[in-house]
Write a structure and sequence with these properties.
- This protein is α/β, with parallel strands linked by helices.
- It is about 55% helix and about 10% strand.
- It contains 14 helices and twelve strands.
- The strands form four sheets. It has a six-stranded mixed beta sheet, sandwiched between helices. Strands 2-3 form a two-stranded antiparallel sheet.
- The protein is elongated.
Amino acid sequence: MKLWIDAGRFSAERVFGIDMIERHLKAARHQKLDLSEVIIDIGAGSAPTWTSEPRLHCPVRIVSGDGDCGTRLKRALEAGEVLLVTDAASLADARLYRYLADRKGSCAIRANKGAIGRIEPVDAAAVLPAPTLDAATGHLAEVSQDEFPAFVAKLRRSLPYYLFSVTGPAERKSVEKFLFWSNYKGSTDFFTKYVYPPLVWMMVPPLARARVHPNAVTIVSIILTVLAVPLFATGHFWWGFACAYGMSVLDSVDGKLARLTFTDSAIGNVLDHGLDIVHPPFWYFGWAIGLLGGWAAMDPASPLWHAALWMLGLYILDRLILAVYRAKYKRGLHTHAPMDAFVRTFISRRNINLPLFTVCYALGWGIEAFYFIVLWQALTCAYHGLRTIWILMTFRPAVSKPT
């Protein structure tokens, strides 16, 4: 299989700092396509320049020749190999590359003047003489949204495929906003969904254009997370809050940056998700120690210290309960039903507990808030436990009937 890109229709616009040709190459690598070659067909024009060429496990060849898009595409099909086809002004959902590569038979997706498709050599006659790819593939079967597996586990929601043509600044800005919002998780907390996005949006585009790697953002996030613990424990709560809220915003920035620029990595996922799981108990203990008057005044017999220990136990138990559903169904509990996604908005999590504690601490109710947060964690744990038991007892996933 080869990837054929019509660069006769070329856009110099860069979406999150990446031009269209580089996006195609990055998407092919990201989806781990088994390609024998990438062909960039420039037609009768001059070879366009693109930002960089990602390391692929196949050669990238630039070809030229007379004729419209359809004529040049038929010429490429003469080699007798299946082609994934698109053009250098289209921005396609990266999932489409894998979907089309795994699918059998010729087909195409055409929307917003953009096009991407799969063409078998035997169907070369169905390619029309036409100036653009969407017109050249007009007689091929079209993939509907209903056929496409839309669920994205990392985003905890279903996301229909998308396809755009980006030929000017207005289209680029519109597509960037769409991509930004489409990369938000379907079930998440109130502050991540409604409060932090404007701050995240202010940071992601300039970081992407500057080619800042998301792991660099994650490292800054880790530093802020660690700094917050001694600040809380020594009673410097407002400096600790500054670090904590900075980390909370950056926790959204690194994920968005990674997905929007195809720079996610195994080590980045470990650092990001590992940090999310590990750090909250350290903050909670920092709060308790700071409220007790610092390390020197810390009393292991204090009810507040006992509450911190209960918080640790409940937090670990809650994580283990959530792991049961994930192990069974290979997805998060809060994707099970709309009710679960709604509950995820308010349950005991860092981004809910932190603002609650901040407001109450400012009002002089820090200790009372801490006890309430422990209670809220207990109620959250109880909900997850009972909900998981109910689902395991009653839910039976639909089984596809053989055709």
